[in-house]
Amino acid sequence: MPQVADNVLAQPVTVLKGVGDKQAEKLAKIGIETVQDCLFHLPLRYQDRTRLMPLGSLRPHQEKLVEGVIQLSQVKFGRRRSLLCQIADGTGSLWLRFFHFSKAQQQQLARGMRIRCFGEIRNGPSALEMVHPEYRLLTGTEPVPVDSELTPVYPTTEGMHQLSLRKLIGQALAYLEQQQMPELLPDALRLHDVAHYKLSEALKYVHLPPPDVDVQQLIDRRHPAQRRLAYEELLAQQLSMRKIRINTQRHPAPAIRADNRAQKALLNSLPFPLTAAQQRVIGEILQDLAQDIPMQRLVQGDVGSGKTVVAAIAAVAAVTAGYQAVMMAPTELLAEQHYQTFLQWLEPLGMTVGWCAGKQTASQRKQMLTALEQGDISVAVGTHALFQDQVVFNKLGLVIIDEQHRFGVHQRLALRDKGRQQNSMPHQLVMTATPIPRTLAMTAYADLNVSVIDELPPGRIPVTTVLISDSRRQEVIDRVHAACQQKRQVYWVCTLIEESEHLQCQAAEDSAQQLQQALPDCRIGLVHGRMKPREKELVMQQFKAGEIDLLVATTVIEVGVDVPNASLMIIENAERLGLAQLHQLRGRVGRGSTQSHCVLMYHPPLSENGQARLKCLRESNDGFVIAQRDLEIRGPGELLGTRQTGLPQFRVADLFDDQDLLMAIGSSADAFLRDYPDQAEQMIKRWFGNKIDFGQV
Ligand code: ADP
Ligand code: MG
After folding, report:
1. Pocket test for ligand 1, best of 267, 270, 281, 308 (most atoms within 8 A of CB)
2. Which CATH superfamily hosts domain 464-620?
């Protein structure tokens, strides 16, 4: 090994053999810039080539090493030409399938040859098969040794081969022998058992598991070395979020002493009294606003729990104290609805409400921007257009972000930074209807205080949910017809995920047309994401006013839209959506005083997993229960849509399996940051590099 500088782990990857500028550029794409980054580039999973599996024991979806003698080898001319070989080992048989093969290969893979293969077992048309396995032909009869170690599989990028990554990481591990990796966990904070495992040992172990490893334990991610790393990774993430919080609190914020008269006037104008939960949460918010440090509070409340009025009261408090408030929503439709609601509630109090969205005309926009800057608008409502550079506030005191799960941490911080005046920060209130389990909330919102509206307004009747195969579409249409005749309104939601928005809108247009043919006496409206805001608004207003019976829509209506007379919802291809999203959609009905129904139409056959998920929705109306189940069935990344929440992609940690570690960390992250700021900084950097941006704090 070449002699290297003292601090080799901090050197750029180009010090490693075989890494030139081009290679370094590719590595940077997967977050590897230094030698140390190689060590923290952890295997996604392992391949087990240490055991030969009897063919009779194979199950689909496993990756296995097998060996057998070729019984049959033939080229099939079907829809796609393929070479098929059947192998057998006395316990059973397996097909190998090649779509691409050379003449030479075809001759090699002849009857009677002994072959060893590695690959994924799949259900073929008639029997289990491996498609394009890695293989080698064996000559002679002596047993050929199997690998003695598991093979790590790394996350990679285009043009970066697993083997090259393995070699680089091998080199980095060799340096680790020369130079110890500093242990950053202070002794006082080695709270959990796993924290006693040495970091360097743990890293070596997961990259190059020794031959005597408990293979299953490693594959299941239960090995103490993996848990040691997961613990530190979770801690690093907590540190980064807590750091955002602490840095924010260094700034002063306007202490807002609320004027009770305006609040009372607003409450008196409402047709309902607040629930106890709403009152409690409002109390918590007002208390935060009165402080001269920025509020950082999350309000969680199931769909329909009444978050809007809570936001309105916070806005009123800010305005009566002489500040501006801004409310941002993730979709134009929702922002418009909030705008209308705020107009109705706040204008009678003498407050001006402004509107800011992407699709405004230039002159409307200019006017609005000037009014905002001069302070003629007290409350601005809009979409992410509010982030834009030209938007300047006069005296921003409060930022409200609705349906937070649609925005990432970065966007949230960006809007807050907008309101900075000299050193002072606005207060920040974020609201979400995605009830997430506690452990996830701790991770995603570790920089926020959490209030929960855990009560629905009285008189709500739980929505009855049924599952129906789409082969019974006609029955569903009959049901829609009956509902319309009873003057009840209906949503028909078209879903297409992973497809373009364009296709989604097309699907909704097609459905609307078909339904209009099937139900000629129904008044049908259509909303989707590609319509002009004014068109959408018009349709929504017609629906609200009861001039439309059946609203065909894409998932744009998912969040927040409120039409109490709608009591039936049909969701097409429900199996394609996440439970939390379905629960949100379903929350559009059940807002009035009649019994509401939600029909989840699915396309059979429904997988076992799909059945379990939809059943859970049928059995519960409680967003928290559903979220917990979704987490168990699908895993946290899916549940929240990692990119959308700003939750980092974890390398080893798993928010579900490692909940105990998260609990063990608890509040110790704060003590760590306070007492060992340098170590904390290094730990964040080690795990998240420059990926976490703390805003301009
Ligand atoms: P979400 O929490 O889903 O944003 P909204 O704020 O849209 O819920 O409220 C849902 C509906 O319930 C609205 O029509 C709202 O006016 C109404 N509402 C809110 N609070 C109460 C309450 N305390 N009693 C009765 N209705 C309420
Ligand atoms: Mg809402």
Report:
1. 308
2. P-loop containing nucleotide triphosphate hydrolases (3.40.50.300)
Which numbered ligand comes closest to the C-alpha of 559?
A: 2
Neighbours of ion ligand 2 (CB under 5 A): 307, 560
- The protein residue whose alpha carbon is closest to atom 17 in ligand 1 is 306
Question: How far does the centroid of ligand 1 lie from the alpha carbon of residue 57, in Å?
Answer: 57
Confidence bin at 410 (pLDDT 50/70/90): low
- 592 CB within 6 A, ligand 1: no
Query: Average per-residue pLDDT in the chain?
Result: 86
Any atom of ligand 1 within 6 Å of the Cβ of 93:
no
Instruction: Give the C-alpha separation, 301 to 639, whole Å.
Output: 17
CA of 458 to the centre of ligand 2 (A): 17
| pLDDT tens per residue across span 74-102 | 998 877 889 999 999 999 999 999 999 99
Give the CATH number of domain 260-453; options: 3.40.50.300, 3.40.720.10, 3.30.390.80, 3.40.30.10: 3.40.50.300
Provide the 3-class DSSP secondary structure of residue 20: coil
Closest-CA residue to 661 (of 224, 244, 246, 243): 224
Burial class (CB in 10 A: 0-12, 13-18, 19+), 175: buried
Give residue 546's pLDDT: 92
Q: What is the pLDDT of residue 66?
A: 96
Ligand 1 and 272: CB distance under 6 A = yes
Domains of the chain, residue spans: 8-46+151-220, 51-138, 260-453, 464-620
Ligand 1 within 6 A of CB of 269: no
CA angle, 115 then 118 then 119, to 5°: 130
Same fold? 51-138, 260-453: no
**Which pair of structure tokens corresponds to residue 423?**
């050193």
DSSP-derived 3-state class of residue 606: coil
Question: CATH assignment of 51-138?
Answer: 2.40.50.140
Quote the percentage of the chain above a pLDDT of 90. Answer: 47
> Can you tell me whether residue 118 is helix, strand or coil?
strand
